[in-house]
Amino acid sequence: MVRCCAALAATPGRLLRPRRPDQAFLAGLVSAPAPKATATVRLIALPQATMAAPAIIVAEGVRSLRELPMSMGAFLVEHPQARFLIDPAICADVHTRVLPGHPFPVGKLVSPDKPVLGLSNALAARDLAASDIDFTLATHLHWDHVAGLLELPDSIELRVPAVEYAWAMHGDTAPIGVIREPLRGQSIAPVELDGPPVLTFPRSHDVFGDGAVVLVDLAGHTPGSIGVLLAVDDGTRVLLAGDAVWNTLQVELIREKAPMPGNLFDADRDAAFRTIQRLHALPADIEVIASHDYDAVLARAVRAS
After folding, report:
1. Residues 6+ apart with CB under 8 A from 171
2. Dist CA 273 CA 255 (whole Å)
3. Mean pLDDT (whole number) for 67-79
4. pTM
5. N or C: which end of the chain has fewer CB within 10 A?
């Protein structure tokens, strides 16, 4: 409650005077080439829930009273070697099983509209079952990116950076935005960003060694936040950016979230803002999809239908 009040108090001034980009940082960014892809993937968006938030707090200082629709859901990726989920997001009973685990008033702030589509049903709509999934991969461990694990067998491996897992699970109290129940008993496979710079990002990891699925460093929103750069079979290069931004409007304008909610949910605001600037500096042919950007997610879902 104290953090919520402090975030609210800090918000009005930032709506009038949003944080400005670091021009020296932007000027110093160098875009390294993306790995040559010798394979491609099929990318399918699985929208599971919706909510809305004022544009002025999603992209700090935007002069607009409109509300932005927000999506919650998973992404299904089919690679020649594996079928996997990025951000197994929402379980069917999320309002009763997961959301009550948040401290007040966080659960109220982040609650999606009813009804939601549970992960099992989202897969079934694609004629798939849990047994068809080889592993899952989390861009970060906030509740709305892993609650769907409750509908998958614990034996299905969750791949996540070690620093992210340690941050989420260490200590008596979970960080704001983290619910530990979906992670307990889960088979965890730590991944390390042990590869070279890719595009504007300092570290990477090529999952299959063929350039089709490359993890990149998006730390800031959480300590181990990652993006997933995909070589898609329609000829596009897509970066699934998790919650590094909530809407591509932030990338275009180089705007962080307002203090409320940013001071609650961003682990390191300075690092998160640097990541937004890295996203802004990407080559124009990289399609950035933020997990909660309803329009971007819907466009990808329609393309795959």
Report:
1. none
2. 8
3. 98
4. 0.97
5. C
